[in-house]
Amino acid sequence: MRAWAKVGMIAAVLAAVPQVASAGKWKALLGAKKVTTVKPEHGFVDDPMAFDEAGGRLVYVASSMAGRSELRVIDLAQKGAQLSSIDITSFTTAPREVQFVLDGEQFFVVAADADKKSGDRQGNRQGDRKIGALVGAKGIIRKFGPAKDLRLTTFQGKQAVVSYAQEWKHGKKGPQVFHTVEIHDLASGKRLAKPRTLIADETGKVAKLDFTITYWTDSYTRVVGTKGGSWDRKEDQRTPDQEAWYEVATGTFTRTFPIKDVIGHRKLEKLLAAHDNEPIFVGVAHDLSGVLYYDHGTPRPIGLTETFSHYDPKSLMMQPVSPDGTVFFTLTIDPVNPDAVARRRAVARYLDLYELAPGAKKARRRARILLHDKRGLEWRATPETWVVVPKHIGFDRGGKAIDIYSLTSK
């Protein structure tokens, strides 16, 4: 009976949330000032968007159900005034990522591969593969891929594209996985290093190197895993396995470390394998006690402005780490969190934007937006600006418009 009474109370509290919010009890915006809303004259705002290096311009994708996609650059200092528009329809109508590159007047776009003949032997659909393109003011300059993944990085002092391909084949000893990495200069398209293929079994074991792949890092230019020990003639036994770093471009092992805590090491490997090419990220602690900052697998707790138990732990969203190491992430208030239930009164469902400076022990809450429904949001942030796209209901891509907020004027 007590359990049913609690369920009934929570249901009643949940029902009260939108009524309280719409009654004007809660402020719609805190910590920021809305500057403007940018809305395409036709179609919708697609998910990909990015700031330039200085944070003064934003590039986004305007798409339409009729099958047209354009890159549009807006000036944030001029309240979202459009500076340019580039048609990329010939390349893709399903963009996934976009970034300013090279001189800041060109762009790198990653999209789903639309070639229906490009599926691999395992039956992976074309949507599981990616293609990339360097885009200039007049359109597509060159293309990259298709590949399982494409990454931008800096290699030999140049902006480069790393393509990672994965192909399964059936060998005499069972299935084999061919992991192939290629590195090309973004500006010229020239190859910057010899392509490297690691042939592994289903467990990731590369027999030729006596090395088992755990995860990829540094945009697929390095792979980390476990290397078998060597034979110790004096002891007449094999030395323990070691953690090893394999540099793809040179085909050499550059570092090895003894594994002192086998169980702890396996847990760390599992965590990092789930975050390929993400040396720095934030995540929720396993015991739901708070948010942790991970630096190459080493965690440390992050202080928050709000008590963590007030948030929905599944709501954590993180923006890719800024070049200077700054991390932006959001959390959403749970209207019926434990404290709200104890007070028998729902609270507002706010989306909170946090900024974590390099080396800081506590994240700074920069702003919060009142949410009136449970639709998803796409967002990007700099120390000065927060852009938010309320997503469509019932459609998993994009929204009607971009809301632009200033974080420096309140």
Structure report:
By secondary structure, this protein is mainly beta. The protein has a domain at 148-277. It has helices spanning 2-22, 262-273, 338-343; strands at residues 29-30, 33-38, 44-51, 57-64, 68-75, 81-87, 95-101, 106-112, 130-136, 139-147, 149-155, 158-171, 174-185, 196-200, 205-206, 211-217, 222-227, 231-232, 237-238, 242-247, 252-258, 280-284, 291-295, 298-302, 317-318, 327-332, 350-356, 364-370, 377-381, 385-390, 402-406. A 5-stranded antiparallel beta sheet has the order 1-28-27-26-25, with no helix packed on it. A 5-stranded antiparallel beta sheet has the order 15-16-17-20-21, with helices on one face. The model is unreliable at 1-7, 16-23 and 118-127 (pLDDT under 50).
SSE topology:
Layout lengths: L1 H21 L6 E2 L2 E6 L5 E8 L5 E8 L3 E8 L5 E7 L7 E7 L4 E7 L17 E7 L2 E9 L1 E7 L2 E14 L2 E12 L10 E5 L4 E2 L4 E7 L4 E6 L3 E2 L4 E2 L3 E6 L4 E7 L3 H12 L6 E5 L6 E5 L2 E5 L14 E2 L8 E6 L5 H6 L6 E7 L7 E7 L6 E5 L3 E6 L11 E5 L4
Antiparallel strand pairs: 1-28, 2-31, 3-4, 4-5, 5-6, 7-8, 8-9, 9-10, 11-12, 12-13, 13-14, 15-16, 16-17, 17-20, 18-19, 20-21, 22-23, 23-24, 25-26, 26-27, 27-28, 29-30, 30-31
List keywords for this structure.
five-stranded antiparallel sheet, disordered N terminus, single chain, 410 residues
